[in-house]
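Posted in: Structural Biology > Protein-Ligand Complexes

Title: Requesting predicted complex, WTA in pocket

I'd be grateful if someone could produce the 3D structure tokens for the following input. Sequence and ligand are given below.
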Amino acid sequence: MSETVIGIPQSFADAKINAERYADMYARSINEPDAFWADEAKRLDWYKEPTKISDVSFAKDDLHIRWFEDGELNVSYNCIDRHLPERAGKVALIWEGDNPAFHHSITYAQLHNHVCRFANELKKIGVKKGDRVTLYMPMIPEAAYAMLACTRIGAVHSVVFGGFSPDALAGRINDCQSEFVVTADQGVRGNKGVPLKANVDKALEQAPDVKAVLCIRHTGAQVPWVEGRDFWHHDLALEVDAKCEPEPMKAEDPLFILYTSGSTGKPKGVLHTTGGYLVWASMTHEYTFDHREDDVFWCTADVGWVTGHTYIVYGPLANGATSLMYEGVPTWPGPDRCWRIVAKHKVTTIYTAPTAIRALMREGDEPVSKHDRSSLRLLGSVGEPINPEAWRWYHEVVGDKRCPIVDTWWQTETGGHLITPLPGAHELKPGSASFPMFGVQPALVDTEGNLLPDEGAQEGNLVLLGSWPGQMRTVYGDHQRFVETYFSTYENMYFTGDGARRDADGYWWITGRVDDVLNVSGHRLGTAEIESALVAHELVAEAAVVGYPHDLKGQGIYCYVTLVAGLEPTEETEKTLKAHVRQEIGPVATPDVIQFSPGLPKTRSGKIMRRILRKIAEGEYDKLGDISTLADPGVVEDLIEGHKIST
Ligand code: WTA
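-- Reply #1 --
Done. Output follows.
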């Protein structure tokens, strides 16, 4: 089969990074890392320039990761103030509402004003440097103001995705002992209200340490109110000054916590720090997207995920870019909404997830082709492997074959892109994340942990051999878990949890998670979280959750459930359990399939054999492997009989 390779278009002939430059810079980033990173650090304004560049050990018993340690800076200063001399009137944020009639632009000067006031409001409700502030926000500019305001005064934000349930929110508030919450009366998506403030109130029944809630009036809906604890943003804004000096922070001071799912246990608070993260966000935004001054950059992620942190807020704003924030959903009020937005705001770069591309592709070509997309010059993909059909449609229909696609592989833990093509440097192979970013050393290991040769075609588990400035520093409040999760599987390497192959030309292809993490519509979920939600229900004795291939979502959620003795499953039971998981975690975690089974395949020592459950969910009955070690091999036949998806 001949492989498709797409050349570098003429429009990227003068890109910042061409093939030669990439090779030189990559070599320098590996051979003289401290010199390379001392130079890259200059992209930021420091109160005190760093002289100690890196101090890293991946050894299990001496794990530490420090970058630019003696440097001092402020993130909001770098994202706002320093642009004012030249870009005060330039648009920093374009906000496009759920309702197509609503939109406005915020210049850098206005952003400065908003963020300073917001920072003073936070101070007024009692927030101090180092305090954790939980943000539970819709996609409105105030989400960015609140994040930047935290960084201005040295508070640590923890953004919780607005689609998570009150229970999930409470867990995340308590885990980082956050005493402050910022939210809005409601969010709006596809003309439907999301009861954010009401959810916060429910969450706070289980989070008694929260002292104050700052609430933004967005839709004007009636909301529950606790006098003395709750404050309206618009009231406080009148009481505070528009001047707020940025707090000088040490490079390794915590910047934010972002909860993400792992293969076991409850979600982990991934901690990113100030200097390294911002260097990484700014550098990757500039190079991957070949950022130019007049770009209109549209990252479609929610600010509740890392992609929204790095590529709606911190990367673009650190670079003085214009970043578009869209409140709604891709197909409301019509299937052409995204392309309408592109034409309306003259978007130059779209950065979205394969799951959205697949959903838009289903609507056909006409909604795309009827809008002017001549402003587009670059397309990006993130969050999950992109299938070749979706890649081709994105390239041919959306980008008219003119626009390269950067398929960026990275994780919440990595802060920003680690493997991605650079549009002026690399020819593209559809579906390949291509080449490592500067300073990144990917490698493959076999299941025993032996490094595979770094030449020729290879496939294995993806590890990283050294650190990069945007790497997470710890799991908040549980450093041991950080060590165990990422540095204990293979000695002296960071284990990504992903599988990958490298082809004979050196291109990297990510094959997906090799652990018990699901990727559902680009949202990361732990099977353990869904299982514990299920077994928390009184009807359930036991549950096991696996992923299976899903046309639209990439992966679907397949649950095997054993009910308590004596109960017979009904349609009602299935509905109840689906609703229960939805309520415990949030709509993103709603099971696609529940298969009731009297037993689960277990070894004699009682361990559930997930490999078998995965194969059955995938309908691959002939690939179950050895089932003779099961305590009761008969279970397998029952499970196959009960399998719910036709293949
Ligand atoms: C997956 C999202 C293939 C991967 C930024 C990773 C990808 C997980 C890609 C992290 C890609 C992300 N190709 N797979 N371009 N990008 N992934 O933490 O499995 O939400 O480990 O970060 O998404 O998900 P997270």
